[in-house]
Amino acid sequence: MTDLYGAIDLGGTKLRAVVADLEGNIRGEVIQPSEAGEGPEPVIARMIETLEAAAAEASVSVSDIRAVGVASPGALDLVHGLVQEAPQLPGWDGVPLVEIMSKRLGIPALLENDANAAALGENRFGAGRGTRFLVYLTISTGVGGGIIIDRKVYHGVSGAAGELGHMVVWFNGPRCLCGERGCLEAIASGTGLSWRAKELVDAGHAPDLAAILREKDELDADEIADAARAGDKDAQRLFDEAGLYLGVALANYVNIFNPEMIVLGGGVLTGAGDLFFDHAGRIMRQLARKEPLKYVRLERTALGDRSGPLGMIAALGDMVEGDKGSLKRPEM
Ligand SMILES: [Zn+2]
């Protein structure tokens, strides 16, 4: 029988577990709400349940799975397998997730940053299949990134590399959740767009958005996108600026990494990409140096929400060595 591996995408709103072979063929997949507000212990119990359900769909039990990989948001200690803290996961304060998962499931466990995992997934099984050098950017509530160098995730000295969303692209620009100003995330993420739209409304602009804000506390990117498509000039300007500064960031990534491909994914890109994707590509081509620009292709995600879990499957595959298929320690 083909060896099967498990992967769990731990998110603030949902959990996705997949069981797949090392070619990336998914045999079982289950999605459940994460109920992150309940804190780590119930969420971990739910992660295990979700993986068990995915295994059942693949007609195996968890003990038949060789190993499990978890893709997590937030600040991680990859050397010790800890989730240090994550804004999306209240109460996760130094949780030894690798130890807990491997003990409870009885199989080896691996932890990776969710955007790094997605980058590896797109590199091995998605839009970047066959590439060696790839940059991945997810534009959703925040902006996350992953860097693939010679088919491996680039982690940096402590595992914190790849925070491409906090590249400062607008000096003294809008305030970012990280505390700085003018990060790409502050301009192009769902949170950034929402904050900036609210500022416009507070200043007496954007009547369409003001009407929505009389009904609820905050706007999401889809609502701002609808207003832009309906002709609201202020909403259009927010997306023009998102495209412009995304293009500035992309040009910087091209110059720094000389990648074969940059893959863009995430909910804001899926829902509102028509308002800024092409603009960002034009700005990238205007600003990047000619030599690296010749080699880079700008693509949208091919795997969507499955890029993270499939990246974990690829990462586990890289740890298999020898004829018996034992697992070596992950490389940092
Ligand atoms: Zn920032």
Describe this structure in words.
By secondary structure, the protein is α/β, with parallel strands linked by helices. The chain folds into 2 domains: 5-114 and 305-327, Nucleotidyltransferase, domain 5 (2-Layer Sandwich), CATH 3.30.420; 127-302, ATPase, nucleotide binding domain (Nucleotidyltransferase, domain 5, 2-Layer Sandwich), CATH 3.30.420.40. It has 12 helices and 14 strands. The strands form 4 sheets. The chain has a 5-stranded mixed sheet, sandwiched between helices. The mean pLDDT is 95. Bound molecules: zinc ion.
Number of structurally distinct domains: 2
- Which CATH architecture of the largest domain is right? 2-Layer Sandwich
How would you spell out the order of helices and strands? EEEHEEEHEHEEEHHHHHEHHHEHEE
Shape: globular
Would you state the CATH class of the largest domain?
A: Alpha Beta
Helix content: 25-40%
Through-space gap between termini = 31 Å
Lateral arrangement of strands in the main beta sheet: 3-2-1-4-7
User: Radius of gyration over alpha carbons?
Assistant: 20 Å
Give the percentage of residues in beta strands. 15-25%
The total count of strands amounts to 14
